[in-house]
Amino acid sequence: MNSTIFSLFSLFFLCTHIVSSSPNKIIPRLSPLLGTILRDEAQDTIPASIPAELKTYFYTQTLDHFNYNPESYATFQQRYVVNSKYWGGANTSAPILAYLGAEAPLDGDLTGVGFLTDNAPRLNALVVYIEHRFYGQSVPFGKLEDVLKNDSVRGYFNSAQAIADYAELLLYLKRNLSAQHSPIIVIGGSYGGMLAAWFRLKYPHIALGALSSSGPILYFDGITPQNGYYSIVTKDFKEASESCVETIRESWSQIDELVSKTSGLSILSQKFKTCKELNKSSELKNYLEYIYDVVAQYNHPPTYPVNVLCGGIDGAPKGSDVLSRVFAGVVAYKGNKTCYDTNEYNYPSSTNLGFSWQTCTEIVLPIGRGINETMFPPAPFDLNSFTEDCRRAYGVSPRPHWVTTYYGGHDIKMVLHRFASNIIFSNGLKDPYSSGGVLEDISDSVLAVSTVNGSHCLDILPAKQSDPQWLIMQRKREVEIMEGWINNYNADLLVFKQ
Ligand SMILES: *[C@@H]1O[C@H](CO)[C@@H](O)[C@H](O)[C@H]1NC(C)=O
Ligand SMILES: *[C@@H]1O[C@H](CO)[C@@H](O)[C@H](O)[C@H]1NC(C)=O
Ligand SMILES: *[C@@H]1O[C@H](CO)[C@@H](O)[C@H](O)[C@H]1NC(C)=O
Ligand SMILES: *[C@@H]1O[C@H](CO)[C@@H](O)[C@H](O)[C@H]1NC(C)=O
Ligand SMILES: *[C@@H]1O[C@H](CO)[C@@H](O)[C@H](O)[C@H]1NC(C)=O
Ligand SMILES: *[C@@H]1O[C@H](CO)[C@@H](O)[C@H](O)[C@H]1NC(C)=O
Ligand SMILES: *[C@@H]1O[C@H](CO)[C@@H](O)[C@H](O)[C@H]1NC(C)=O
């Protein structure tokens, strides 16, 4: 299987950057920690503690919402977590902020996605986080590893079923709380941001509005150029330092050159202090590429990891060769370690496993790059070989046109400007995925809220003392837009419920 393709999509899509150390131990590492120099490795193994006001529940969820076969009626337990501390209560129709889980266990999002709890007091809102089916504790019939091998179960692992879960669960929750008149605003980031936007389009009777943070709903079916992602990575690096980009650009052929020599791999392993002896140059190249992608995607203030990494490259002792400079960049970003694990990003996690399935079936993101288009060596997205890989792994072919068939995406402005309402598409333009985001207003209430220096899902991360003014303003604008929706809703409620 082409591990590059699979791991790229599975690792680089979350709001909170996750590094796992073993298949069953998922350790969420919050994005703001990225870039901390000389980070204590132990930090990575401490799970985020969950505030006491968060209460965990399980909903008996329908396996298959769309068919009426005997097995469709099977159920599984779906995890959701409620914070009612700030809720104004059903009697005042106080709103519900619903976080739609994405391709990871919910645990990291409970503290990692701070937007909901940060703004719940202002909106008197109930907060609920819902886990996506097949992730975390919401896996039907056992362990994900096993279930993904079971072709009569994994077919139910798709976005349409997932948002139907959210619809069913949210209606149940409102009944349970006698909160029929409380409006719901759905919020998600990255893949979850796509789900939030799609949810509003499909279930306007359940969600009053949606905040879709860094959801690249246009990175499908050729709408966005293949190289959108890597073009922005390269642009981010260029804006940090032209010489840094030149060094990286030159490094790939220097790696090849070194490896073509006797004991080249061994020299390369020593030069980059790899924990295991390199077997092929791609092990190192993929690792470096990952790091560059991660720092660009999660180029969060106040550290701005792209600057940190380029600072290492540019700051290497005078006369250092290209590969020593590149290594100095790795050290600046990762810290001074006894060795560097080039497999760090490849260990199986539920995100890796689950999102491989999703990208091999429905969420087909044609991300690639041609010759000399970016600071990376060429790696075009080839649907034929991707399809072959998927067939080998799962026995099924991807359906690259299904997302646009089911949810749309082509001519989005023309299609949605009279149809849709109450969606915020938020993006940070330094986020490589913003290349597939909605960056222009579509109508008076389908709005693009972008920041020039923002990164992946930055707006929905917890507010911090060190936040720059433009980030504070972005979040403020988002909440004000939501307040507008809620005011209109309350006015409608008076008219229609009399
Ligand atoms: C909410 O309204 C219902 C019906 O009007 C009433 O019985 C109940 O006491 C109210 N609850 C609160 C907390 O005000
Ligand atoms: C697949 O999962 C179903 C539901 O749990 C189970 O009945 C069936 O035996 C599984 N099939 C295999 C091949 O494990
Ligand atoms: C819903 O109601 C049931 C039964 O009244 C209760 O046990 C459960 O905790 C409630 N769930 C939530 C999220 O309030
Ligand atoms: C080289 O191959 C061995 C054996 O398959 C493997 O254990 C090791 O991790 C590989 N080295 C790297 C750097 O991936
Ligand atoms: C990295 O650590 C090693 C061993 O502790 C030390 O000798 C070396 O000077 C350190 N390098 C930097 C750049 O701090
Ligand atoms: C790519 O850039 C290199 C170095 O500038 C140049 O030698 C080569 O001809 C370019 N290739 C293409 C296909 O443009
Ligand atoms: C973005 O960051 C750059 C570099 O720090 C700065 O010069 C620029 O003013 C910032 N732009 C905005 C809109 O904040």
Q: Look up the CATH topology of the largest domain.
A: Rossmann fold
**Number of self-contained structural domains:** 2
Give start-end ranges of low-pLDDT stretches: 1-11, 18-46
β-sheet strand percentage: 5-15%
**Residues in helices, as a percent range:** 25-40%
Please tally the β strands and state the result: 8
Content-based structural category: alpha/beta
Bound small molecules, deduplicated: 2-acetamido-2-deoxy-beta-D-glucopyranose
What is the CATH H-level superfamily of the largest domain?
Answer: Alpha/Beta hydrolase fold, catalytic domain
The average pLDDT score comes to 91
Question: How far apart lie the N and C ends?
Answer: 61 Å
Short description:
The chain is an alpha/beta fold and 498 residues long. 40% of the residues lie in helices and 10% in strands. An 8-stranded mixed beta sheet has the order 1-2-4-3-5-6-7-8, sandwiched between helices.
Task: Summarize this structure as a short list of keywords or feature phrases.
Four Helix Bundle (Hemerythrin (Met), subunit A); eight-stranded mixed sheet; disordered N terminus; globular; Rossmann fold; alpha/beta; 2 domains; single chain; 498 residues; AB_hydrolase_fold; binds 2-acetamido-2-deoxy-beta-D-glucopyranose; serine-type exopeptidase activity
Structural commentary:
InterPro entries: AB_hydrolase_fold, Peptidase_S28, Ser_carbopepase_S28_SKS. This is Serine carboxypeptidase S28 family protein. This protein has 498 residues and is of the alpha/beta class. The chain folds into two domains: 54-215 and 411-497, Alpha/Beta hydrolase fold, catalytic domain (Rossmann fold), CATH 3.40.50.1820; 241-346, Serine carboxypeptidase S28, SKS domain (Four Helix Bundle (Hemerythrin (Met), subunit A), Up-down Bundle), CATH 1.20.120. 40% of the residues lie in helices and 10% in strands. An eight-stranded mixed sheet has the order 1-2-4-3-5-6-7-8, sandwiched between helices. Helix 6 (191-202) links the parallel strand 5 and strand 6 (209-213). It is globular, with a radius of gyration of 23 Å.
